[in-house]
Structures are given as structure tokens and as C-alpha cells.
Design brief:
It is a single chain. The chain contains 4 helices and 2 strands. It has helices at about 15-40, 50-60, 60-80, 90-125, and strands at about 1-5, 10. The longest helix has about 35 residues, at about 90-125. It has one domain (about 1-125). It is mostly helical and about 140 residues long. Keywords: Membrane, Transmembrane, Transmembrane helix. This is DUF4118 domain-containing protein.
């Protein structure tokens, strides 16, 4: 893992085995948190997975976050949608939940990738004071 100089966010190379291992860990921790939420009565199937996908996309990149998304869908279908712990035909509400999760996952992973690239550019070039910009005229 390497740290970017400006923000201190640890980053993992996107196609490394550490990135994919981190993806499995994030899915497992999100599933544990989702299980606690379901035990407390929450009906939002994918709520605990979305923040984890964003952080994973920020730290490990798009490939690991995409793998985590693809692992999350059958996991939630099997473990958190009634009847629990069996694959059954999806209702239209469950299908809508999966479609909405896919849309939000794509948007969050894209946003995380933009943030990751911005952090790389800023750490590579550094920030300049407003008066030191090349676009300003010092007259």
C-alpha cells in the first residue's frame, strides 16, 4: 500500500491480489453490519454495502469495487431477502431493489474513481497558492 502525499488515504494498486482481498473483506464486513441491521428490523437490503463500495473504490480502485458489487447481489438475494438463506424467485420489489443498487453502485464507483484520480493528480503536482497560479497576471 502507498499513501498519497496530500490526503493520507492509503491506496492499493487496482489489479493486485491485495485489492481483491480487500474487496472480499469489505463485503464480509458489510454483510455483518447488514445482518445486524436486519436483526434490528431494517428492510433496506443494500444499505450497509453502499458506503463500503465507495470506500473500496477509493482505496482499491474500480476492479475490486466491481467484484464486490457482483458478490453483493447474490449474497443479499440469498441471505437478506425473504425467505432467508435460500434462492427463490424475485418479486418485482426485490428486482427493483437490485436494479437501484446496481445504478447506485455504478455512480458511487465512478465517483470514487474520480476522487482517486484527483488525489493522484494533486499529490503528483502539489497545490499552489492562489497567487502562484500560471493563469493569473501579476500586473
Amino acid at each position: 500500500m502507498r499513501r498519497t502525499g496530500l490526503f493520507g488515504v492509503p491506496q492499493v494498486r487496482p489489479w493486485s491480489w491485495q485489492a481483491f482481498l480487500l474487496g472480499f473483506v469489505v463485503v464480509a464486513m458489510s454483510a455483518l453490519l447488514q445482518g445486524i441491521c436486519v436483526a434490528l428490523g431494517a428492510k433496506l437490503y443494500f444499505a450497509a454495502f453502499l458506503p463500503g463500495l465507495f470506500v473500496l473504490g477509493l482505496v482499491a480502485g474500480v476492479p475490486a469495487a466491481t467484484l464486490a458489487t457482483l458478490l453483493t447481489i447474490p449474497l443479499v438475494w440469498w441471505a437478506f431477502m425473504p425467505p432467508f438463506f435460500e434462492f427463490n424467485s424475485l418479486t418485482s420489489a426485490n428486482t427493483d431493489s437490485i436494479n437501484l443498487f446496481c445504478l447506485l453502485a455504478v455512480l458511487l464507483i465512478g465517483l470514487a474513481d474520480l476522487c482517486r484520480e484527483t488525489m493522484a493528480i494533486v499529490s503528483r503536482c502539489g497545490l499552489k497558492r492562489p497567487g502562484e497560479s500560471a493563469a493569473t497576471n501579476p500586473q
